[in-house]
Amino acid sequence: MPVSIRQIGPCLAGEVAGIDMRRVLTASEIADIHAGMDKYAVLVFHNQDIDDEQQLAFTRSLGEIELTLNTGLRAESEYRLPPTFADVSNLDKENRPFARDDRRRLFALGNRLWHSDSSFKTTPAKYSLLHARKIPSTGGNTEFADMRAAYDALDDQTKAACEGLVCEHSQIYSRQQIGFFDLTDEERERFRPVRQTLVRTHPVTGRKSLYLSSHAGAIVDWPIPEARAFLRDLIEHATQREFVYSHKWAVGDLVIWDNRQTMHRGRPFPAEEARDVRRTTIAGDGPTALQEAA
Fold first, then answer.
1. Does a structural domain hold residue 286?
2. 118-139 pLDDT, tens per residue?
3. pLDDT confidence of 70, banded at 50, 70, 90?
4. Residue 146: beta bridge partners?
5. What is the pLDDT of residue 187?
6. How many structural domains is the chain composed of?
7. Which residue has the higher pLDDT, 96 or 293?
8. Contact, 13 vs 245, CB < 8 A?
9. CATH value at residue 41
10. What is the 3-state secondary structure (H, E, C) of the chain?
């Protein structure tokens, strides 16, 4: 069956048919997926009954995997999944939902803010691939915002103001927004800010995108209050309904998104119910901006 993609969002997101992730993909199928990502930025694959190894094999067919060690508050002894996966579930090592006041759960609530995966790393992520194994009875959607369309819709004055700006990204900034300050000295050192350009140009299509995230908490050489007000205005602009696709999960869905062209956020669901979703991540090509000297 040939690969086909049907647009399902207002200006991004395509639904893919003709791919079975239980088998090795052909070079043509891999090329079709990359082309679809360039065009739609988010691709949805339904009814993918795959296990961890099959998800890893599919991910590796698209690029180099980014490891996820030390990006959250789980100690290595508490990992439920290997470091080739980002465990964005609400489950502990025994597959039980975290208690409502567990600091690991509270830290993870930052994922309900608009963000781009790994923007807090010197080399941010390219693609994220999320597979649904178990979903709650209600809620838990993932929303995606098209940062290309958001950039295109800016007035010329704001586009000019954005050009050349460099932001500082850290999970410290994003967690402060939800009132989470319970970090150890080691965690604060581990989450030290990195620099990312505010405007990115796609290497294939040449389209410009705003590179925003809740992790962005400063603009180099700007006063902090002015920078945060400016970034908040941009995020408010970029997440208007005409730029957003909301995905309602079903078990077996796998969704890929391009972190260079989108933001996303998870939506609330009952805290006592399991949401087992497993993310693999394609590493980016390199830093977007020069880093501050040590």
1. no
2. 999 999 999 999 999 999 999 9
3. confident
4. 262
5. 96
6. 1
7. 96
8. yes
9. 3.60.130.10
10. CCCEEEECCCCCCEEEECCCCCCCCCHHHHHHHHHHHHHHCEEEECCCCCCHHHHHHHHHHHCCECCCCCCCCCCHHHCCCCCCCEECCCECCCCCECCCCCHHHHHHHHHHCCECCCCCCCCCCCEEEEEEEECCCCCCCEEEEEHHHHHHCCCHHHHHHHCCCEEEECHHHHHHHCCCCCCCHHHHHHCCCEEEECEEECCCCCCEEECCCCCEEEECCCCHHHHHHHHHHHHHHHCCHHHEEEECCCCCCEEEEECCCEEEEECCCCCCCCCEEEEEEECCCCCCCCCCCC
Give the residue from 151, 271, 139 showing the smallest Cα distance to 200: 151
Note the pLDDT of residue 1. 74
Look-up of token digits 């990204």: 169
Q: How confident is the model at residue 293 (pLDDT cuts 50, 70, 90)?
A: low
**Would the pTM count as exceeding 0.90?**
yes
Residue 293 lies in a domain: no
- What pLDDT is attached to residue 139? 98
24: buried, middle or exposed (CB in 10 Å: 19+, 13-18, 0-12)? exposed
Residue 159 lies inside a defined structural domain of this protein: yes
Determine, yes or no, domain membership for 291.
Answer: no
- Mean pLDDT, residues 54-63 taken together: 98
